[in-house]
Amino acid sequence: MKSKKKHNKFIEWFFNRPKLTSILTFLFLSYIVGFVVVLQYQVIKEDEQRQMDTILHVVQQNIEQSLKNCYTTSLTLALTIGESGVPKNFDYVSKSLIATNPTIHTVQLVPKGIIKYIYPMAGNEEAMNLNILTSPHLNKEAFKSITTRKMYFAGPLELKQGGMGIVGRFPIFQNNQFWGYSAVILKLETLLKSSGIANVDQSKYYFQLSKYSPTEKREIFYLPKKENFNDNYKISVQIPDGDWKLYIASKNRSFLTKEILIPGIIGMLLAALFGVVIFTLLRMPRKLQSLVNKQAKKLMNSEIKFKAIFDQAAVGIAHIDSFTGRFIEINNQYCKLLGYSQKEIQELNYQTLTHPEDLIEDLSNIDKLRAGEIENYSLEKRFISKDGNVIWINLTVSPLIKKDGKVVSHIAIIEDISIKKDAEDLIKKSEIRFKSLFEDYPIPLWEKDFSQVKNYLKELDLVSKSPDIVEKYLKTNPEVIAKCMTLVRVVDVNNMCIDLHDAKNKEEVTCGFKQFLGESYTCDFAKHIIAITQGKNELIADSTIKTAKGETRDVKYRWSIITGFEESLGRTIVSTEDITVQKHNENIIKKSQQRIESLINTIDGIVWECDAVNFSHTFISPKVKNILGYTPEEWLADAAFWQNHIYDEDKHYVQNYTELKKNQNLDHDFEYRMIAKDGSIVWLRDIVNVVLENDKAISLRGIMIDISKAKEAEKELNASFDLVTEENKRLLNFSYIISHNLRSHTSNIESIISLLETAENEEEKEQLIQLLKTTSDSLNETMFHLNEVINIRANIDLVSEPLDLEKYIISTKNVLCEQISSNKVTISTEIPPGTLINYNPAYLESILYNIISNSIRYKHPSRKPVININLVEENNIKILEITDNGIGIDLARNGDKIFGMYKTFSNNADSRGIGLFITKNQIDAMGGNITVESEPNKGTTFKIYIL
């Protein structure tokens, strides 16, 4: 009782505050409206996004498939390049590749970045000999494919030969050296056409293709509609093969707003109106109380069952006059569905609210109901609500009051089925879209019915049996496979399927599809049967088909069950992707791999591959057993096998050298020793190639060649060569000494004899005879020394002995006395008396003679020749210095000629270019060294280092 009073007081509190009550009512209803509008917005947005995402995904797959086909074409084209770097049958192969891939406009081979091979040539002449690596607008994307060692699609760009196109470049490497590119060119419009963009509803959506330009630091758009579409609703995907971004955008920028704006406004108006009505009603408490009392009395007089239905029903219920169609009584749900108030709707009839197209059927049923021809009826019809919207309802009509056997009023129950109808429309639209996608899908599709096949397999009790049992049964009963093939029913095929089989129309494929089955299809169909018995919903396998012309083509078929038909298999989608070119390329690659394997086995060396981090080998060719005695299995079983079997003296060098070259990412070639299985030491030449990924070494590959015999031969050859070289050097020196020194003596004798013949008196003759005798003595001494050298040559080793340096200088002066006298040469020495040096006498005499005679021969014409001879000591090494004031030598021009045989650097007629050559060889033979310091017009200093 107390609770009831509190409840009444609470209600009275609201009745006494009409303004507050109306505001609270308005706010509450506004919240409800906002909540419903948000839900509607999310549903519409998700549906739109789902549609756009599906379309964009299909277009993306089509583009990526076209790019994959281009990759196959580029790879096939690259295989035409022989070992010499020249392509074979370029035009023939290119023609076949373009014929099998209509999206490709042109193919190219680009050695060293220069376009040298083009097919077709007609219309592409402008691109011939273009260097893409030096072209500013092409080289960045060209270098990108070299860096990644992957195919990269440049563009869209304006082609040299005209038009917008996309260039796919596949980098080719031979012996890890960049050869050039295998390139394909696609016209932009052809790629877009093959992507299926043209099949999308252009009134609702449009596409845009873009790429980010690092140069311009902005996103560049390539399709015609390039204005800013940031205000449009859009989604996008990335296409990594070309760094593109593909957009799909809604043309109606504000369609989502429009979808929710009007219902939201109407809802808010209704909330405000309802608040005003509440306010008005609460302002008239007496009238409201009178209406409440009147309604209460009326409800009390109604039947209990009718009252319960009206009050509790979740559907609209109306008591209607069967003759006039006017509403006698209606519940709130009925009013709510139509948007009218009780008073408004009672002034109308159901004919006014019924959609004109549904009215005739409704009136016909009412006539039958009144005449007693039917007891009741139900139908789906449309009402027009107060706001003008069409509402689909499910109507159930039953008679209520009868007079004289005729129905005078009836009960109409309505249920809102708008959502159901919208769903049906959505399904219908989805079916239309599916049909469109099915027909225009770029891969051949079959829609088949396998229900009879499954029923037949159930009869044979093969369903759910193990795959082995089913396979064994099919092998022993091949007629079951043939029977199942006849039970398959083709429901539909798409356009690409007709093209694949070169058929005229769908009927030719669907009705006679068995004629298009390849020879291996019967065996392949057994996989279908096994998959069905195992309850699989998907199967992927390869097979062959035939065209209407009898040509055989390889296909990859994918068998998928449509959702909802998993149990019956009444609808399945079978795609038959043409992989003839792919199979052909795979065969080429397989043969190439076999050739490589055969080549590896025939190479007279160990072919290997190892990890770049820890040098653990992942591959060793069988030749390792012939060269080192180990089997490949023994080598690969130990991760540190290579390091552990390097010869100890070479191990530190080899490991450091290999690590250094790996860190520098440089290929290398070096020699070292390994310990064979029998304990012997084997010399190996290791030619190593560093395999990079993202500028980082990931693995090493190489060939180990046995060079043990070559090393032994090299060792023996070097020893022999050193011996022969030394002997030759000494023989040459000896021959030069004889020819040069004896010529000097004979020349002096000849000069003295000539003077004797012209002498005027006996005194002059006596002087010349004495001079001749001195020269003859010097000649005898030289001959003595030469004989001594011959004896030394017989013993190979040179003999050194203590020699009085001053004595040999005086001897040289005597030999050159005529030249000294005639040229008025001053020779001064600063050598202490009795100074001894260990040297070969013949060599010392020859050295002094050659240097001093050269100083006289190359005297300066403007001054008297002066020659200074001095002996100094540095770091326990004696240095003989001979300095003159002659014309000097231009060392910048002739520094490399001074000690060369027959090398002269003056116009002197006596120059032979042999003296200094002999001198240098003699000094070297004694283990010493000679240097020269000189300036033109100043003089020259020779320094002889005596060990």
Report on this model:
This protein is of the alpha+beta class and 947 residues long. A 5-stranded antiparallel beta sheet has the order 2-1-5-4-3, with helices on both faces. Strands 11-10-14-13-12 form a 5-stranded antiparallel beta sheet. The chain has a 5-stranded antiparallel beta sheet with strand order 16-15-19-18-17, with helices on both faces. A hairpin with a 5-residue loop joins strand 20 and strand 21. Helix 15 packs antiparallel against helix 19, helix 16 crosses helix 19 and helix 25 packs across helix 31.
Q: Mind describing the biggest β-sheet? A: 5 strands, antiparallel
Computed over alpha carbons, the radius of gyration is 55 Å
Average pLDDT for all residues: 79
Principal-axes shape call: elongated
| Beta-strand fraction estimate | 15-25%
Helix tally?
A: 31
The secondary structure category is alpha+beta
DSSP helix fraction: 40-55%
Annotation, overall tally of beta strands: 31
Distance between the termini: 138 Å
Spans of at least 5 consecutive residues whose pLDDT stays below 50 are 791-796
Strand arrangement in the largest pleated sheet: 2-1-5-4-3
